[in-house]
């Protein structure tokens, strides 16, 4: 799997939430996808709810000129996509309907990585996983992944798949960044134990690690973090913590000559279980900067500096477990 994946949530935008991230025309989408392919980034992630289907449509059009076997496509389902009572969730009815809709919008006959966008506690896990297994057996899906699951959600699902010999989740799309390290507490050890790769969404901390937010400056006027719907639906991070982390990144930037986003992304690529980072871009400049996060490595000393600056107090039972690392070591 490529180290970087392009997040197509910025393509085909509509609605307040997505327009706060970017407004990308069809021509711009075509150019950005071309730049990705030229750079060897051939993995693209979207979802049916991104701009209510238009992200999938825009991505499908942009990829139409390439051989299908040369690209990897990831999309997702579970969240509401329609007004009907069955237009939401991970039931057999909704997932089958959602997959067919995604295939049509993307202009393909199979999905490389098909995600459940969230856990559906109202549908039996057996029904969901049996449906996904049938999609794999029918050749419409290559690999299964989930997203935003709790530890017990993922472990129960893996156990059910093993019990019945069904296709299992091989990936977990999660939020993880230098200003959001909760993933390390339980989901990372679980992923190591069960062999589940992490696909990282919002690796720049919901836009907080672009290098524009600094002590004495605050949040710039043109930042999407000034949009209430964006802030309310994302991770909450105290400004003081952002300043502390960015100041440590600045020290590493002075040593490496790299940008703040490049360092933040490279740190993630060195972390256990991380398979790929899903990067977005409003324009060509942002994309090229993010592409510069690969091909080099932070030193152990630089990693340790960033680790120390981004550490936060742990919740229970993790703070208790951390006192007994002799028998409960941290992931490495």
How would you sum up this structure, described in words?
- With 332 residues, the chain is of the alpha/beta class.
- The chain has one domain (4-324): TIM Barrel.
- Helix content is 41%, strand content 13%.
- It has 13 helices and eight strands.
- It has helices at 16-21, 26-38, 54-63, 92-106, 125-137, 151-164, 187-194, 228-233, 239-256, 260-269, 284-291, 300-310, 318-321, and strands spanning 4-7, 43-45, 72-77, 111-116, 141-147, 169-175, 197-201, 274-279.
- Strands 1-2-3-4-5-6-7-8 form an eight-stranded parallel barrel, surrounded by six helices.
- Helix 7 (187-194) links the parallel strand 6 (169-175) and strand 7 (197-201).
- The two termini are 20 Å apart.
- The relative contact order is 0.11.
- The mean pLDDT is 93.
């Amino acid at each position: 799997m490529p180290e970087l994946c392009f997040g197509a949530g910025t393509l085909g935008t509509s609605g307040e939430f997505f327009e706060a991230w970017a407004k990308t025309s069809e021509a711009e989408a075509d150019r950005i996808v071309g730049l990705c392919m030229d750079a060897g980034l051939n993995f693209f992630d979207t979802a049916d709810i991104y701009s209510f289907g238009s992200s999938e449509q825009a991505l499908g059009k942009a990829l139409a000129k390439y051989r299908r076997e040369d690209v990897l496509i990831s999309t997702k389902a579970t969240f509401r996509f329609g007004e009907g009572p069955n237009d939401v969730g991970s039931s057999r009815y909704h997932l089958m309907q959602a997959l067919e809709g995604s295939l049509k919008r993307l202009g393909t006959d199979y999905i490389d990585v098909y995600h459940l966008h969230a856990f559906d506690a109202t549908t039996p896990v057996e029904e969901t996983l049996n449906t996904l297994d049938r999609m794999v057996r029918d050749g419409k899906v290559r690999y299964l992944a989930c997203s935003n699951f709790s530890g017990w959600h993922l472990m129960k699902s893996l156990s059910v798949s093993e019990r019945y010999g069904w296709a299992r989740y091989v990936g977990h799309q999660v939020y993880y960044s230098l200003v959001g390290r909760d993933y390390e507490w339980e989901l990372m050890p679980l992923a190591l134990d069960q062999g589940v790769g992490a696909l990282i969404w919002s690796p720049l901390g919901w836009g907080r690690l672009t290098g524009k937010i600094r002590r004495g400056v605050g949040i710039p006027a043109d930042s999407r973090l000034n949009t209430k719907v964006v802030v309310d639906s994302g991770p909450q991070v105290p400004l003081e913590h952002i300043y502390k982390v960015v100041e440590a990144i600045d020290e590493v930037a002075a040593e490496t000559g790299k940008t703040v986003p490049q360092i933040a992304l490279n740190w993630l690529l060195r972390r256990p279980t991380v398979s790929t980072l899903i990067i977005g871009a409003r324009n060509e400049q942002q994309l090229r900067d993010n592409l510069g996060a690969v091909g080099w490595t932070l030193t152990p000393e630089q990693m340790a500096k960033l680790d120390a600056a981004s550490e936060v107090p742990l919740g229970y039972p993790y703070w208790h477990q951390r006192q007994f690392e002799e028998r409960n070591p941290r992931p490495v």
